[in-house]
Amino acid sequence: MHKEKIPKLTIPRLSLYYRALLESRESAFISSEELSKLTQFSAAQVRKDLTYFGEFGTPGKGYRIVELKEVILKILGTGRQRNIALIGAGNLGLALLAYRGFAVQGFRIVAAFDSNLSKIGKTFEGVLIRGMNELPQVVRNKNIEIAIIAVPANVAQEAVNKVIKSGITAILNFAPIRPKAPKGEEILNIDLSIELERLSYFLKRKSKKV
Amino acid sequence: MHKEKIPKLTIPRLSLYYRALLESRESAFISSEELSKLTQFSAAQVRKDLTYFGEFGTPGKGYRIVELKEVILKILGTGRQRNIALIGAGNLGLALLAYRGFAVQGFRIVAAFDSNLSKIGKTFEGVLIRGMNELPQVVRNKNIEIAIIAVPANVAQEAVNKVIKSGITAILNFAPIRPKAPKGEEILNIDLSIELERLSYFLKRKSKKV
DNA sequence: AAAAGATTGTGAATAATTTCACTTGACGCA
DNA sequence: TGCGTCAAGTGAAATTATTCACAATCTTTT
Question: How crowded is residue A56: how many other Cβ atoms within 10 Å of its Cβ?
Fold first, then answer.
């Protein structure tokens, strides 16, 4: 059994390998070299990443595509549906609600919440907007495992607190703050300003190299 | 002069230091220890990050907040306005257009583009939606340095190609693909599916630890 | 003016991650 | 069956990033 520690970045790479596999319908097998070409990661990286979880390849041939896809699904736990609660039904929240792009992967926003009374009770994309007070029971009833935070910065920590109290442990946060949370919670931050500032830094450096 | 190579993650940390500084109005000075408390990064990390760019602190006191803020702005190149082109005026695109949150940092979407004829000519949030053919001249005229890609996956590479051809070198990509681009381009990917899959992996692991 | 106290800046040590390079196993063909 | 080839798996090396720990230095106090 493999006991090595798995690098953080291995997981998103697995997602990308999976995507590449979806586009590889020509052959039954794929080599780490081919996966490397498709994903821009090195072939050694591909092999290393995969062997953290087992030995799936056959020397001389490569990886059986059908099998590898199943394996990655299993590792990521995306074989089944995962229900999501959307917190915040503003512009961004509603855009995420309308974005059905990740439904294919099994993720589904099954409930939405807002504290704005004028929104509560309305339905968008077939999803009813509820008051935050309903969060705990809806999480329980609808078997919600993930929350997406799409509220303004000034109420984001409060929203995160309520989400955690409702029993959710996996959070995707779009608010431009780093929420504080107890151990055992997994919070991923998607922070527009920070990404733009990274780009700005890149532009700055570039303009200096005359 | 410092010549050490700067770790990739130093830059987003600088952004977070800056944010913390905005909230530190009590005193004129702040120590790496205090910044550590505010940002969750270690004090040594704070000092290391800052010294890549110079020596800004005074032993025994810490960093002068006003000065440090200026320094970080200068490093990141966020002291001045950066103009952005939005590619794709669908749900997500329009939500980004409406999100004025990063305007304060000097980032501004000054033009929007779509290939859907029914959208071209309309105005959202004071920004006219134009056809993609207008991209090159608008980039030139409006001094646009950054593009945000918010188009469906199947046309994203094409959009990126056009953006690059128009002379833009910094791209924030929301489409669930890894665009191919020549060297010299900086592309940051914000990929919802991948983040959700990371959360799924986390949930999977968690459920195993019984 | 000296001593005490605080905190920076930084080499060195450690940790994490990726790449290298080689061994081994599987397949296909003569 | 045996040989050649291909590609996985993997320790070791290299690279990258973070943490440690302490000398240097500035401030404050007495």
Answer: 15
Residue A113 CA to residue A209 CA, distance in Å, equals 49
What CATH number should be reported for the domain holding residue B174?
3.40.50.720
Kindly state the DSSP code that residue B17 receives in the 8-state scheme: H
Of B78, B91, B152, the CB nearest to A200: B78
* DSSP per-residue string spanning A20-62: HHHT--S-SEE-HHHHHHHHSS-HHHHHHHHHTS---EETTTE
Pairwise CB contact (< 8 Å): B199 & A186: yes
The residue with tokens 């914000």 is B190
* pLDDT surpasses 50 at B209: yes
Closest CA to A14 of A81, A102, A76, A77: A76
Count of domains observed in chain A: 2
pLDDT digit string, tens, across residues A147-201: 999 999 999 999 999 999 999 999 999 999 999 999 999 999 999 999 999 999 9
User: Phi and psi dihedrals of B155, rounded to 5?
Assistant: -115, 10
Q: If we measure between CA atoms, which residue out of B1, B77, B14 comes closest to residue B48?
A: B14
CB < 8 Å from B in window 44-83 of A: 75-78, 82
- Write the pLDDT tens digit of every residue in B126-138: 999 999 999 999 9
Q: Where are the beta strands (DSSP E) in chain A?
A: 29-30, 57-58, 62-64, 82-87, 107-114, 123-124, 127-131, 144-149, 170-173, 186-189
> What range defines the domain where residue B57 resides?
9-76
Residues A70 and A122 in one domain: no
Whole-number pLDDT of residue A104: 75
